[in-house]
């Protein structure tokens, strides 16, 4: 006899409809549920279920398009000496094949362009054995033979160097007492006659330009040259804001008014000063006028050219952009004093 509590088996219907389930009087069977983990007590963290570990697998598109980036420690680039820097390895500008005669004498180190023009007009220069008095004729630097006072002269490739001058170094070509000069620091430089553009005191450090381009050097050293020079001055005595204001207003020195273009305090004992005056010891004299004796003085910029990346006592070639900036400066020798003001 069939059990009355057992549900009847399913029967297929010709109409395709699924027969309804029949339950006993006791009701539907109980629903089976997964046993939940015991609830943690107050103050305890919920235990992790070791049996259920899910890991999101990336889709094939995302895995190929955006792989996981692992954070790695930054690679330290090997420190290169100034002699290994790309700027220093770069060669000076090539010598043009044809230049004007006055430029030829300048590149040969005879004189500046203006003085060279007078030398040519005085009949002291000959080209291929013929005396010429025209400074603006073209000569071939590779084929023509040029003589000055009967002696052959040869042009040199223009070289432009930036030196980070250290202390106890003289800004001169040669010292009779055998003291160290800036030329002694140019190890590996091209074998040409280089001259410092301007001077820094023996104990003043920082940016110094050297070149064999006498015409450019004369332009930069002209009293009416407007090239800004930036210095960092330190003193044991703290600077004040009043000092900054007086520098910007100008100081009446014995050789004329000395006024800073820009001045600000980097810290109480460090002053940053920018001025375009090229007079001798001008920064020290300005601060001594205000009662300050400097502990150190460092030139950190010459116009937009800085000594960044050049260790003390090392040098580098100027970049083509820096040379172009120097050459684009207006020549004060070709303007009247009223125009230069």
Concise summary:
By secondary structure, the chain is an alpha+beta fold.
What does this entry look like structurally?
The protein is of the alpha+beta class. Among the domains are: 98-152, RNA-binding S4 domain (Structural Genomics Hypothetical 15.5 Kd Protein In mrcA-pckA Intergenic Region, Chain A), CATH 3.10.290.10; 160-335, 2-Layer Sandwich (Pseudouridine synthase). The chain is built from nine helices and 17 strands. Strands 7, 8, 9, 10, 13, 14, 15, 16 and 17 form a nine-stranded mixed sheet that branches. A four-stranded antiparallel sheet has the order 3-2-5-6. A hairpin with a 2-residue loop joins strand 11 and strand 12. The radius of gyration is 41 Å and the shape is elongated.
Count of β-strands: 17
> What is the strand content?
15-25%
Radius of gyration: 41 Å
Highest-level CATH class of the domain at 160-335: Alpha Beta
Task: Summarize the topology.
Elements: H1 60-65, H2 86-89, E1 98-100, H3 101-107, H4 113-121, E2 125-127, E3 130-131, E4 138-140, E5 146-148, E6 151-152, E7 160-165, E8 195-196, E9 205-211, H5 214-221, E10 229-235, H6 241-249, E11 251-253, E12 256-258, E13 262-267, E14 270-275, H7 282-289, E15 294-302, E16 305-306, E17 315-317, H8 320-328, H9 337-340
Parallel strand pairs: 9-15
Antiparallel strand pairs: 1-4, 2-3, 2-5, 5-6, 7-9, 7-17, 8-9, 10-14, 10-15, 11-12, 13-14, 15-16
């Amino acid at each position: 006899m069939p059990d009355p509590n057992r549900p009847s088996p399913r029967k297929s219907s010709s109409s395709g409809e699924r027969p309804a389930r029949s339950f006993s009087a006791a009701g539907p069977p109980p629903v089976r549920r997964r046993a939940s983990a015991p609830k943690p007590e107050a103050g305890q963290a919920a235990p992790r279920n070791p049996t259920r570990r899910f890991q999101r697998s990336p889709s094939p598109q995302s895995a190929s398009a955006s792989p996981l980036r692992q954070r790695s420690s930054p690679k330290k680039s090997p420190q290169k000496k100034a002699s290994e820097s790309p700027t220093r390895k770069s060669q000076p500008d090539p010598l043009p094949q044809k230049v004007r005669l006055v430029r030829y004498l300048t590149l040969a180190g005879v004189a500046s362009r203006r003085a060279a023009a007078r030398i040519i007009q005085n009949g002291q220069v000959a080209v291929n054995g013929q005396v010429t008095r025209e400074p603006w004729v073209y000569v071939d630097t590779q084929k023509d033979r040029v003589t000055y006072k009967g002696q052959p002269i040869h042009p040199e490739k223009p070289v432009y160097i930036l030196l980070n001058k250290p202390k106890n170094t003289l800004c001169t070509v040669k010292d009779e007492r055998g003291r160290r000069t800036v030329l002694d620091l140019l190890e590996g430089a091209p074998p040409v006659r280089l001259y410092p553009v301007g001077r820094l005191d023996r104990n003043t450090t920082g940016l110094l330009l050297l070149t064999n381009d006498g015409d450019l050097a004369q332009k930069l050293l002209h009293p009416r040259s407007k090239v800004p020079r930036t210095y960092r001055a330190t003193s044991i005595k703290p600077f004040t804001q009043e000092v900054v204001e007086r520098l910007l207003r100008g100081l009446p020195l014995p050789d004329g008014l000395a006024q800073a273009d820009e001045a600000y305090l980097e810290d109480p004992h460090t002053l940053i000063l920018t001025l375009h005056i090229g007079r001798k010891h001008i920064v020290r004299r300005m601060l001594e006028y205000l009662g300050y004796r400097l502990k150190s003085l460092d030139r950190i910029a010459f116009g937009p050219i800085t000594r960044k990346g050049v260790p003390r006592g090392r040098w580098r070639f100027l970049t083509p952009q820096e040379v172009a900036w120097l050459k684009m400066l207006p020549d004060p020798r070709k303007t009247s004093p009223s125009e230069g003001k």
